[in-house]
TrEMBL record:
Positions bearing N6-(pyridoxal phosphate)lysine: K304
MF terms in GO: glycine dehydrogenase (decarboxylating) activity
Domain Aminotransferase class V: start-end pairs: 193-311
Subunit structure as annotated in this protein's UniProt entry: The glycine cleavage system is composed of four proteins: P, T, L and H. In this organism, the P 'protein' is a heterodimer of two subunits.
Composition bias type Basic and acidic residues, residue spans: 14-23
Name recorded for this polypeptide: Probable glycine dehydrogenase (decarboxylating) subunit 2
The keyword Oxidoreductase appears for this protein: yes
Keyword Oxidoreductase found: yes
Cofactor requirement: pyridoxal 5'-phosphate
Gene from which this protein is expressed: gcvPB
Domain Glycine dehydrogenase C-terminal: 390-495
Catalyzed reactions: N(6)-[(R)-lipoyl]-L-lysyl-[glycine-cleavage complex H protein] + glycine + H(+) = N(6)-[(R)-S(8)-aminomethyldihydrolipoyl]-L-lysyl-[glycine-cleavage complex H protein] + CO2
Record Gene3D superfamilies: 6.20.440.10, Aspartate Aminotransferase, domain 1 (3.90.1150.10), Type I PLP-dependent aspartate aminotransferase-like (Major domain) (3.40.640.10)
Transmembrane segments: none
Length: 529
């Protein structure tokens, strides 16, 4: 439940009208929380000349000149902060307190799968043999790493139901780009020059961006009343100049499309490929496989479905799996297991082998290796039955939370956008809430921060008015889901009495509500030292 809001807070902020005291938030009479009142300084603004956190011992080996060319030598010392160790530690600890993180609260961002990252996997990735392995190490001295990547490829291929995997892509969007480039190579090798790629109107924004980057024309496919692909619209747009259909199943509405086999038939009948966006794979692992549905190309998000930390800009990992007909165009080098049981990186695969008609490299080296270690540890820890259990629990948690919101009367103002049940996530529409209570989805999201919850995804997917996309994941307890549902219900009750409270939230966060439009138009990205 929300902590109460006092008159002192309301009078202290000129942008908020005064209200009778309802609750008491932990804010004092000077206006704002201590963190809101504190003067925020960068590390460069702290300290004093000559102050040090560490002093290096004197060099006890002979100096050798000329090892570094003069063109690469500094002419003056680097302008680094001059602070003591306690100042340095406090600065970064206090910065961490200003962020919301999965270790401190529920993080139900929809279509993002902000999954718990088991500490065991972090420890495994930090072992010296993994963390200190140089990317230019010769294959014969990196056999353990190559074996791990080889086994990870086999495991991911088994999950997707497709036999050939490439680990290079650095993110899901990077994997998308590789998938579309492989599609292009496949068609061009057959003498076909297709111009269009189909994407549903529920697609992630990266799908049309990827299509454009690859030089294709984006063609939107509509959604039917049940939340799946509009079959008649697909038939009308699936012409012989279509290269591919990019699809997520279950999709961003949290709906598994029961027409997937018919969709695959329509796409393949015109000679196009079928691409699976693996953002929602954690709903079906061990239950259904994209390859069995008819998909030719699948990308995984190791930072969504396989416990690689996600957020903050990376690193990510977006491997892809492909069918036999796409395999010749895969990136190189390919990890191959030799007859004597050792592993090698094959830069020029033999005719008929994966990569024999390769489009080349997508990035330097083989990908973000630390992501591979964590994901492989996760797969080995759970095994096939454990992965299936994770998916079933993700779907159970989402449907339990939806049922709880219905029981509390929340869906009167936030109805489910499509269907009656969901997969691992669901989309509510805040349109009735906006009309009846006078608060928008954004207001609800901001007010949730005062209850200690990170808000779900808002205003996506775009086809849902005032969209509120919730994904509880498989790692949250019933008690957490209950508290989250009760917080939403309390905010709606509060809005029925006084919508201005939610309209001006949040009150307890380190930074109050920002003018996001102004920040986007006039960002401050540099600060003088």
């Amino acid at each position: 439940m929300s902590a109460p809001l006092s008159d002192n807070v309301l009078h202290g902020d000129p942008g908020i009208e005064a209200h009778p005291p309802r609750h008491e938030l932990p804010i004092d009479a000077t206006g704002g929380t201590p963190m809101q009142r504190s003067e925020v300084k960068t590390i460069f603004e702290k300290g004093s000349p000559g102050r040090r956190a560490f002093s290096c011992p004197k060099v006890d080996v002979p100096m050798v000149e000329g090892l570094l060319p003069d063109a690469y030598r500094r002419t003056e010392p680097a302008r680094l902060p001059e602070v003591s160790e306690p100042e340095l530690v406090r600065h970064y600890v206090n910065l961490s307190k200003r962020n919301f993180d999965l270790d401190s609260g529920f993080y139900p961002l929809g279509s993002c799968t902000m999954k718990h990252n088991p500490r065991l996997h972090e420890r495994v990735a930090g072992l010296p043999g993994h963390a200190r392995l140089h990317p230019l190490q010769t294959p014969k001295r990196a056999q353990g790493a190559l074996e791990l990547m080889y086994n990870l490829e086999r495991a991911l291929g088994s999950v997707a139901g497709l036999p050939h995997v490439a680990l290079q892509p650095s993110a899901g969007s990077h994997g998308e780009l590789l998938g579309v480039l492989l599609t292009r190579a496949y068609h061009e090798d057959r003498g076909e020059h297709r111009r269009k790629v189909l994407t549903p109107d529920t697609a992630h924004g990266t799908n049309p961006a990827t299509v454009t980057m690859a030089g294709y024309e984006v063609v939107k496919v509509g959604t039917n009343p049940d939340g799946g692909v509009d079959i008649e619209d697909l038939k009308a747009k699936a012409t012989t100049d279509v290269a591919c259909l990019m699809l997520t199943n279950p999709n961003t509405l949290g709906v598994f499309d029961p027409n997937i086999e018919e969709i695959a038939h329509i796409v393949h009948e015109v000679g196009a490929t079928l691409y699976y966006d693996g953002a929602n794979l954690n709903a079906v692992m061990g239950i259904s496989r994209p390859g069995d549905m008819g998909f030719d190309i699948v990308h995984y998000n190791l930072h969504k479905s396989f416990t690689q930390p996600h957020g903050g800009g990376g690193p990510g990992s977006g491997p892809i799996a492909v069918s036999d007909r796409i395999a010749p165009y895969l990136t190189v080098p390919v990890i191959e297991k030799q007859d004597d049981g050792t592993f090698t990186l094959e830069h020029d695969p033999a005719e008929g082998r994966p990569g024999s008609k390769s489009i080349g490299r997508l990035r330097g080296f083989q990908g973000n290796y630390g992501c591979f270690v964590r994901s492989y540890a996760y797969i080995c820890s759970l095994g096939a039955e454990g992965l299936k259990d994770a998916s079933e629990t993700a779907v159970l948690n989402a449907n339990y939370l939806l049922a709880k919101l219905r029981a509390l009367g929340v869906t009167e103002h936030l109805p489910l956008a499509f269907g009656e049940l969901c997969m691992h996530e669901f989309v509510l529409s805040g349109a009735p809430m906006k009309k009846d209570l006078g608060i928008k989805t954004l207001d609800l999201a901001k007010r949730l921060l005062d209850h200690g919850f990170h808000p779900p995804t808002v205003y996506f997917p775009l086809l849902v008015d005032e969209a509120f996309l919730i994904e509880p994941t498989e790692t949250e307890t019933k008690e957490t889901l209950d508290a989250f549902a009760e917080a939403i219900a309390a905010i709606l009750t509060e809005a029925g009495e006084d919508p201005a409270i939610a309209q001006n939230a949040p009150y307890t966060t380190p930074v109050r509500r920002l003018d996001e439009a102004a920040a986007a138009k006039s960002p401050v990205i540099r600060q003088p030292l």
